[in-house]
Specification:
33% helix, Rossmann fold, alpha/beta, globular, 7 strands, single chain, 114 residues, two-stranded antiparallel sheet
Length: 114
């Protein structure tokens, strides 16, 4: 029996999280959601997902500021960065393990990737 891949979504936009959760559940992923950076960091270390979607601007900090720490602790995760403005790749990170998504994220765009 193969293990289902895990997705963690850290974003304070509830509707976006629900949309993405339903998408990934249909694709047979395990899906976890956090709406704050602190909760997201805790969940990240508990479940160690295969894919992490993290928003730039969260209620308790900038998600992308934690990326170097996350990246060092969990190098196997594929990181997906979410931003409502035209984002740029954070410095000092390996771009091959990072994908940047500009809001609004469409299911068609996710289909092209997953």
């Amino acid at each position: 029996m193969t293990m289902r891949k895990k997705v963690l979504i850290i974003d304070d936009e509830v509707d976006l999280c629900l949309l993405m959760k339903s998408y990934f559940l249909r694709k047979n992923y395990e899906v976890y959601i956090a709406h704050t950076l602190s909760d997201g960091m805790k969940r990240l270390n508990e479940i160690v997902p295969d894919y992490l979607f993290i928003d730039y601007n969260l209620p308790d900090g900038l998600g992308w500021d934690k990326l170097p720490e996350m990246y060092r602790a969990h190098p196997a995760i594929h990181f997906h960065l979410i931003s409502a403005f035209r984002p740029t790749m954070p410095p000092d990170l390996d771009g091959s393990k990072l994908t940047i998504w500009e809001k609004p994220i469409s299911l068609k765009a996710l289909d092209n990737f997953f």
